[in-house]
Specification:
Elements (H helix, E strand, L loop, with lengths): L12 E4 L9 H16 L3 E6 L9 H14 L8 E2 L4 H13 L3 E4 L3 H13 L25 E4 L6 E6 L3 E6 L7 E3 L7 H11 L4 E5 L3 H14 L5 E5 L2 E2 L15 H6 L4 H9 L13 H7 L10 E2 L2 H14 L2 H16 L5 H14 L6 H12 L8 H6 L2 H15 L6 H15 L3 H13 L7 H8 L1 H17 L1
Parallel strand pairs: 1-2, 2-3, 9-10, 11-12
Antiparallel strand pairs: 4-5, 5-8, 6-7
Helix pairs in contact: 1-9, 3-5, 5-6, 8-10, 11-12, 11-13, 12-13, 15-17, 15-19, 16-18, 17-18
The protein binds one RNA strand of 75 nucleotides through helix 4, strand 7, helix 5, helix 6 and strand 12.
Amino acid sequence: MTINTPSPVAPVVTRFAPSPTGFLHIGGARTALFNYLFAKHHGGTLHLRIEDTDRSRSTPEAIAAIIEGLAWLGLDHDGEVVYQFARAARHAEVAHALVASGHAYRCYASIEELDAMRAAQKAAHAPQRYDGRWRDRDPAEAPSSVKPVIRLKAPQTGATTIHDLVQGAVTVENAVLDDMVLLRSDGTPTYMLSVVVDDHDMGVTHIIRGDDHLNNAFRQLQLIRAMGWPEPAYAHIPLIHGADGAKLSKRHGALAVGEYAKMGYLPEAMENALLRLGWGHGDDEMITRNQAIAWFDTGHIGRAASRFDIKKLDNLNGHYIRSADDARLTALVLPFVEAKIGSPVSLSQHSLITKAMPELKSRAKTLLDLADGCLFLVRQRPLPIDASAEKLLDAAGLALLGDVAQTLSTEAVWDNPNLEASLKSMAERLGLGLGKIAQPLRAALTGTTTSPGIFDVLTLLGRDESLARISDTHKHTKLQ
RNA sequence: GGCCCCUUCGUCUAGCGGUUAGGACACCACCCUUUCACGGUGGAUACACGGAUUCGAAUUCCGUAGGGGUCACCA
């Protein structure tokens, strides 16, 4: 019996092989990530192959979305993208070689005939599989009206075992595997043929893919053996389930990775979240790309399906936002800010946001939150005042603000320590806590009840803007 | 239904025969505090069930239950 483990000295070659029939969702992204990390960990290469042999369902938009999604995550592949459809002639060639060597045969059963066969099997509560009716039949008996398919002449006795890097040894009786179609009657290759040929021709040593392919692997292995090709190592990773506990799909509300970008998530946060889905390294939670490359192994991939938790992504994203560079964050948040205010951000506002970033970023879980936090800096006077801020601007609040304006207007040095000293002494004089003064002031300056520290807000806005916003509030409220 | 796989706090996981079953998110309380965050401290919550092996089992084996995957001339 053959063990399908490649020689340890061979350089590692992995591949990510999505079919472009839809967007790249987190399941696919995580498969790509694992392939990437495994390859990098071993100093190997990762190839991208687009499995576009289903011409009616493959779209250029999907191809673009997959490539963009991978680029956003920074999962670079080596070499050119391989398009599977372009290799159909080579796949057919292999099928014919298999017929010539006696490992495959032509089957003249019509679609209708096969449907009838399955219906009968179903009625008899028997397993539904091709019964091998043309396996040993003389081709001379072939009906001229039917164009044949080519089927693999698979072993009918014994068992096939896969030594999966994640699932362990998995064995299936050959008797339950039927003779799969390699080449359709129109001469085009099936997926089963194409993957095997492409993986071989691309020199793939490790096939890391979703668990939903585990059953396919047995037939693929039989095909590999029929060709006498080296056997790759397999790692079938558990699927990511949707909230309903079933395989992730559009139907379950799976989102394209691009959607997460639009919701204000950072790619490194997404990567970290994906990495921790099904893989762990002790108690480590925040894992950088380099650490992931150094630590990644198939031995610690779990065997059970997992669910994606957006709350955890939020938390991770908050961490990464806090540790991100201010200039980068500003550049990232700008489009979100502009979308919210409906106009472009000026150069001076841009630098104001950068300046405020250290204070803003600790308050955001997403770039969308961050953009909300920026709003008070870029809004034009008079500021819109939200409902909870409005409540602080009652008669008492406004009276207080009059005093505050008085105090602030005499302030010679407009900086954090001076403003703090001045407002604190004012509070003391009035026998109030600082909060009593700070809250109405915050409402006046930002139109909201949450913001960075009040002295930061004052210095960020500057003396003129701050005083103007305070007096705006008086007018605004009197108008009511 | 056949075949295959899975099962540790609500969620993601650590654990590889001897642990008070650890961490993270979320949740609750408290602290910090001018708001909101951040940060800190503490708390509640898990080995699906039943057998077997063993001095000893979350870890091994066998069942049961539940969940998932897959059964095309789709990929």
